Amino acid sequence: MSAATSPITTYLDEYKSPLFNVDSVQLWFDIYEDETHVRCELSVSYAGSSGDISPLSLDGEQMSLQSVAINGVSLNEDEYTLTEKQLTILKPQHKFTLTTHVIINPKENTLLMGLYQSRHNLCTQCEAEGFRRITYFLDRPDVMSHYKVSIVADKASYPMLLSNGNLISEQDLPDGRHQAIWEDPSLKPCYLFALVAGSFDVISDSFITCSGREILLKFYLEQGFSEQARYAIGALKRAMKWDEEVYGREYDLDIYMVVAVSDFTMGAMENKGLNIFNTSCVLANPETATDRDFFRIEAVIGHEYFHNWSGNRITCRDWFQLTLKEGLTVFRDHHFSMDMSDADYARIAQVDIMRDHQFKEDSGPMAHSIRERSYIQINNFYTSTVYEKGSEVIGMLKTLLGSKLFHEGVDLYLSRHDGQAVTTEDFIQAMVDVSGRDLTQFQRWYDQAGTPVVAIDQSYDSANKQWIVTVAQSCPKTPNQDKKLPFHLPLAIGAITEKGDPILLSLVDGDASSQETIVLEITSRQQKFVFKNVKSQPIPSLLRGFSAPVNISYDYSDEELAMLMRYDGDIIARCDAGRNLMTRALTKCAMQYESQETLVMSLALIQAIEFVLSNVSVESYKDLMVAARLLSMPAISYLMQTNSSINIMSWGAAAKFIKNTIANMNEDVFKQHYELCCSDASYKLEMHDVATREYKNLCLDYLVATKKTEYCALSFRQFGVSHNMTDAWGALVAINQAEGQERDEALASFYDKWQHEPLVVNKWLKLHASANIDSCLESLQGLLDHPAFSMSNPNNVYALFGGFSANMIQFHRGEDGDGYAFLIDNVIKLDKINSLVAARMVRPLTMWRTLDAKRSQLMKDGLARLLEVDGLSTDLYEIVSKSLEQV
Fold it and tell me: Domain limits at 345?
């Protein structure tokens, strides 16, 4: 375990500003087949106090130093020190030019950080700490410089040479080589540096800004896939227009470039003017991408573009401030998605991610605040907490301040700190300055981890027509945080009558201020609110719009949840009621299963589902959208958060029973609705078509759950005749859970048709990994040697191993831990190839505390085995070691 025997922990409290400024950076890249020469010239000035000048330590990894010079004079070996991680200049000057020459090998860079090879092209990924794998530098976000870049390569092999900013010149050179020189007029940290060299198909477009400037848009695609980027370039133009209209921000360069590559660890990277994307976040057409793929592409395209202001022109002082750019930019892309599609549809998906993923993260051993105070590897903190919870924290600010003041605050922040590297306090201060509000308590959201629990108690005074609501907040302990101070949060609350009618609420006498939704500001551990002139006993509708990232504790009856599921006017609260009613029914059935009792489904749930089905109009996309959500089964990973004492196999049995019961009781309705939703019309990405496809495929899934052969055949027919991936995928998902000839033929046919489309092949891998059938693990072991799978391709890995670990029943099946061993064995192999991806893949094992004693011990033993591996990466070491610590 040589890499992890003495891991270095970085602490927020130990932050010190850099002792040296790098005013300008000039880079010369000389690219050859097996190596790349990088010459770097830095204009450095000392920023420390007068007196002796401290040594200059530069970060650097995985490179061969050829020479180092100050002001053109080569340094002797006694004038600098060199280790595996640093180059230290022992006696720097107040102001000087430092020149280094290194050799790197992009072909061998399987970590995919720094400069690496993807297919036959070269590209970079420098966030968070990848620039140190290109040249020696102060690799930290608060060192902002001007960059000028020269790239030289063989023209036949690398006809396109790209970097950030503006193209200054191009020229042919002797011996078939050529050169391109780029200069970025903006200050930027090194993590935003980008370089691409290769051969691509190119599509171009333009955008006219609000001030009349024409921006050239260029998308560089791996050859043969250019037509699949048309939707993405349209999404970029929509994002540019939206940011002008909503935030008043215009793009500042004359060209905006996007390069899509197959080998990319993350979704995309916002490098100034030259975004580099995973192909999965760019390429799409109706035949190869589902509706959800299209929406994800639009969101990611928007996200990276919005970073131009919230992340690039203003960046993080240090990596602890990561949510400063990511939380705000996710908030912006969330609202962009809500405006581009349907606000309710998009918001439901956002809330589901919080409940299914972020809340799970908050309850585990890697729980951390959105601005963590220490880390071993910053790569491990690119999490749903920093991104999605960070976005929800921004959303609470908007709710508390109101839209007008919030947008004034964002505008002040962007204007005040343009060109700077700043902190979350700077963002909050802008909000304080425009609103006059004291947000000191609110800032606890940045430093306290965990999901708060908001407990509600209520009583009704019929004599005085008063509804008394008592709100108490608490937060479970998390690693290194046993005690939590009260949060400042907005709680949106409404109510309906026992007949389902909305109740107008007011905290003061008189009807003038009455509203269907009231936002309560919660600041104390316990608060009481008295609503006036309430004429009948209310049924509380709580956390409307998901106004805060909290769990609600309220003792609803089944009948109350059913009423909210039927009539609540707030879509999010209505969906929450449906999920809670379904979860309650699943919990009872799981307990019955463990007690070997006869499984009985809740009458309230039966009646609520019948009501939903009987009130669906296929003419209303809202009806279809909400019905699809209300009838969806909660993920078992979510169920495990609600009651960890239940064996996961009991959850599986309960889920199977309830799904089959719903299917059989409503078979005729599901069949009728399925047929009504079928259409031969051409594909459209419009909300009615999207909702119709989603509801139709849910009906098909339930029909297959009846286990009648006619519906397996129906699913197979839909797969065969589908002209869009959404319907083909819906059919495959339904039939994938029914082991038999139809499934085998469908998967074989799917691969034969799409084996030359890498993104569709990932879907095929995921189908195998997510199948809840006994042969699942055996089939995955065989796929490891399949030509469609490569351990060095992150998308392949996420599809196969990520898909399997999310397949809760098969991953945890049996009591021998074969699923855990399969994952651990391959994580060990993966760690030698790409430790960042390995650290992501091991996370499901860190939730061992949520399982029964035997499985828990097997997972712990597996994690302990990982710690014994020689040369374990620090990325993996941090995750594994923290998961074994006592909370």
Answer: 315-447
- Maximal CA-CA distance, the chain: 95
Pair (394, 500) in one structural domain: no
pTM, two decimal places:
0.97
Residues 397 and 473 in one domain: no
454 is a domain residue: no
Q: Are residues 191 and 135 part of one domain?
A: yes
- Which pairing describes strands 315-316 and 374-375: parallel, antiparallel, or unpaired? unpaired
Torsions phi, psi for 193 (to 5 deg): -70, 145
Closest C-alpha to 231, from 253, 205, 198, 255: 205
Question: Do the strands 20-31 and 36-46 form a parallel or antiparallel pair, or are they unpaired?
Answer: antiparallel
pLDDT higher than 70, residue 512:
no
Number of structural domains (the chain) is 3
Same domain for 423 and 516, yes or no, is no
Residue of 222, 304, 372, 757 with catalytic role: 304
Q: CA-to-CA distance for 240 and 174, rounded, in angstroms?
A: 41
Do both 194 and 60 map to the same domain? yes
pLDDT in tens, 485-505: 999 999 999 999 999 999 999
Does any domain span residue 677? no
As beta bridge partners, residue 268 has: 277
Q: How many angstroms separate the CA atoms of 258 and 46, rounded? A: 36
Residue-wise pLDDT tens digits, 597-615: 999 999 999 999 999 999 9
Tell me whether residue 434 is in a domain. yes
CATH of the domain at 341: 1.10.390.10
Q: Are 683 and 689 in contact (CB under 8 A)?
A: yes
Give the domain CATH number at 185: 2.60.40.1730
Report the DSSP beta bridge partners of residue 217: 205, 256
Helix (H) or strand (E) holding 317: none
pLDDT at 513: 77
Q: How far is CA 758 from CA 204, 258, 287, 620, 743, in A?
A: 24, 19, 13, 36, 21
Distance, in Å, from the CA atom of 184 to the CA atom of 162, rounded to the nearest integer, reads 12
Tokens of 137: 């530098």
Active-site annotation holds for 304: yes
**435 touches 398 (CB < 8 A):** no
The verdict on 345 and 439 lying in the same domain is yes
